[in-house]
Amino acid sequence: MRPLSLRWRLLVVGGAAILAALGAAAIGLAVLFDCHVERVALADLEDRVLSLIAM
């Protein structure tokens, strides 16, 4: 059996590193988006409560 060439091994490791980075970025963006949506919803609810109190 012939061992894999250096070029092939570097290609495989590079591809795996890119996929890992994309996965980490996707998870990070999903968490940031979730926090943003929650923060906007809470701010909207606080504004509505304050307007109800003011009435």
Describe this structure in words.
The protein has 55 residues and is mostly helical. The chain has a domain at 27-55. The chain is built from 1 helix and no strands. It has one helix at residues 6-54.
**Derived structural class:** mainly alpha
What does the overall shape look like?
A: rod-shaped
Annotation field: number of helices: 1
Number of strands: 0
Strand content: under 5%
Q: Write down the secondary-structure element order.
A: H
**Residue-averaged pLDDT, rounded?**
94
Ends: how far apart?
82 Å
Detail the poorly predicted runs.
none
Radius of gyration: 24 Å
Helical coverage, percent range: over 70%
Q: Report the biggest beta sheet as strand number plus sense, adding barrel if it closes.
A: none
Keywords:
55 residues, mainly alpha, 0% strand, Two-component sensor histidine kinase
